[in-house]
Design brief:
mainly alpha
Length: 89
């Protein structure tokens, strides 16, 4: 697998995870964020991608720092969407 395909698979897995979070209703903030974004004119597809970005930050931190999932920070990033200035941190 080349790097482009690896990245695609990672994005696909993130989106699938977000879709599962929405279907499971856990965490509740994910579905609420999707509804908020769609109600303000964002397409469902774009909203899912933004939520996947917030999830990717948490997964990257777990892998980089060998730590646990930070639900509070994930919630904060979801609350900030569609603004993604926190990606520069």
């Amino acid at each position: 697998m080349d790097n482009e395909q690896d990245s695609y698979m990672t994005q696909e897995m993130l989106i699938e995870t977000v879709e599962n979070q929405i279907a499971d209703g856990e965490p509740q903030k994910v579905k609420a964020t999707l509804m908020r974004l769609v109600m303000t004119g964002t397409s469902r597809e774009e909203a899912i991608q933004w939520i996947a970005c917030a999830l990717a930050v948490e997964i990257f931190d777990i892998m980089k720092n060998e730590t646990t999932f930070n639900a509070k920070r994930y919630d904060q990033h979801l609350d900030a969407l569609p603004n993604m200035d926190w990606l520069d941190d």
